[in-house]
Amino acid sequence: MIRILLADDEHLIRGAVAALLGLEPDLEVVAEVGRGDEVAAAVAEHDPDVAVLDIEMPGADGLTVAERLDASGARCSVCILTSFGRPGYLRRAMAAGVRGFVAKDAPTQELAAAIRKVHGGGRYLDAELAAGAMAAGDNPLSEREREILRLTGTGTETARIAARLHLSEGTVRNYLSTAMTKLGESNRVAAVRCAKEMGWI
Amino acid sequence: MIRILLADDEHLIRGAVAALLGLEPDLEVVAEVGRGDEVAAAVAEHDPDVAVLDIEMPGADGLTVAERLDASGARCSVCILTSFGRPGYLRRAMAAGVRGFVAKDAPTQELAAAIRKVHGGGRYLDAELAAGAMAAGDNPLSEREREILRLTGTGTETARIAARLHLSEGTVRNYLSTAMTKLGESNRVAAVRCAKEMGWI
DNA sequence: TCGCCCGCATGACACCTGTCATGCCGATCG
DNA sequence: CGATCGGCATGACAGGTGTCATGCGGGCGA
Looking at the partner chain, which of A20, A22, A189 has a beta carbon nearest the beta carbon of B153? Predict the structure, then answer.
């Protein structure tokens, strides 16, 4: 029996995935949490074999959680289950020692297959996603560029961004300009959108 | 036995929700589709009692599908199941004769409860969402403003938007300006974000 | 019928944005 | 070591952006 922890902020979906996994005779969901920052405690308490993590979660996102579990030398394996198979996400997951990566639009039985593979010490990657990540290449943005794109994406004005980061407005515009050049986009809205889709911010 | 049609573009999630509903003795999933534009045919073929529709789908979004079903006088009731409980979505759904509206982060048993209520001729609304919709008020944006906000949100340059809509650039900027004023935002990125969160574009 | 309001559309003006030239610093490499 | 490259930071300039005054036409209440 493979013991599973499920982390996803959408309660109903979490319950549905638990129901799906409950249909498999060799799988057992032993814990469910709705926030990233509750995963560590739940792992400590329930000692699951595999942690199935969503990426978009309040508290801490699934990739950050995976990195922390990896750094703390936790016994349990991690399988990411997410809506967005963005290239940047996949790379960050691999770097964090994640061995399974399944998209929410994958075939129904793929999650159980991934969990078994991961529990057996193997890896499970969606072929489409892996190909996409290879094609997209590395994240070309610097830390400053990412930060400023993130803030721009929330609708923050240039002046406010400059104030918050202790920069001149011209410098903020300059980072946006280099980011736009790197992403091949011609304005800030398009650059933010592109960076988000790649999983780079 | 209540016969259900399930429409959601995320295959794995669709399967999971089907598994969840399969646990209920009085519910039966008789059809599953992954695109909005496949719903009509599936309804005609399987004659379900209740159609459970996601909003974000390729082909046609769930609200559009609900409006079409309503207009065609279909026998089956509609229950919307979505990640985003945006005020504008709820209003559009009500206008389309939808009688159930459930958020994906609602408690696990809420979907089954909503389906039973809707099948019995009643209505089922998440109290939180309904309150949010009341508080947000009506969509203040005109058709032109929505269209231009949508295009701006995809990263399209002002000049291209003007060309596509056969307007001068100044007019496009003006619509963005009035939209920004109505939404209380100070730049186009913020306005797009705000309108999206309200479900107004 | 007459104002009145609202949506649609435009051009002009002030200001914000995107780009460029420039410089500094640390890392990498021949 | 000196050369070179990439990240960080700035100011100046041209052009795009947000705002305003203005006008047209359709619907709606007085």
Answer: A189
